[in-house]
């Protein structure tokens, strides 16, 4: 059974930090490109960061570049998102996504809420 389970969300003050985790199981984690998305109330889901398996390159949305870092631990089948200097506009439900275009398979987690507020 495929599972992506996010954790680490919560309430944090502006300027604070959080680290999100996404634990993967039920598929070959190492051959999937991994991404973080977020969806704020009343808005469409947007790409936050992605990390490829080929060369391990990462890309970020302009709004988070320089503040967020995406990383992987293949031994633990876990994806991370380190979020620093958080702003109220970062408030959203954060989702992890696994993609393998060759296999034409995509998996989503259930999401974790991040609220940035004083």
How many strand units? 11
Order of helices and strands: EEEEEEEEEEE
Rough outline: globular
Determine the mean pLDDT: 95
Radius of gyration: 14 Å
Name the beta content range.
Answer: over 45%
Low-confidence stretches: none
Terminal residue distance: 40 Å
Largest sheet: 7 strands, mixed
Which structural class is indicated by helix and strand composition?
A: mainly beta
Description:
The protein is an all-beta fold and 118 residues long. The protein is 0% helix and 53% strand. It starts with a strand and ends with a strand. The model has no long low-confidence stretch (mean pLDDT 95).
Summary, kept brief:
The protein has 118 residues and is mainly β. The protein is 0% helix and 53% strand. β4 and β5 (46-51) form a beta hairpin.
Descriptive labels:
0% helix; 53% strand; 4-stranded antiparallel β-sheet; 11 strands; single chain; 118 residues; 7-stranded mixed β-sheet; mainly beta
Secondary-structure map with pairings?
Elements: E1 3-7, E2 10-12, E3 18-25, E4 33-39, E5 46-51, E6 58-60, E7 68-73, E8 78-83, E9 92-100, E10 105-108, E11 112-116
Parallel strand pairs: 2-11
Antiparallel strand pairs: 1-3, 3-8, 4-5, 4-9, 5-6, 7-8, 9-10, 9-11
């Amino acid at each position: 059974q495929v599972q992506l389970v996010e954790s680490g969300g919560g309430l944090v003050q502006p300027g604070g930090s959080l680290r999100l985790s996404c634990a993967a199981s039920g598929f070959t984690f190492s051959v999937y490109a991994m991404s973080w998305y977020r969806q704020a109330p009343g808005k469409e889901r947007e790409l936050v960061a992605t990390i490829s398996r080929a060369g391990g390159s990462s890309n970020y949305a302009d709004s988070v570049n320089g503040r967020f870092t995406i990383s992987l631990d293949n031994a633990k089948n876990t994806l991370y998102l380190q979020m620093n200097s958080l702003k109220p506009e970062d408030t959203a439900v954060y989702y992890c996504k696994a993609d393998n275009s060759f296999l034409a398979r995509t998996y989503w987690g259930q999401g974790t809420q991040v609220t940035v507020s004083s």
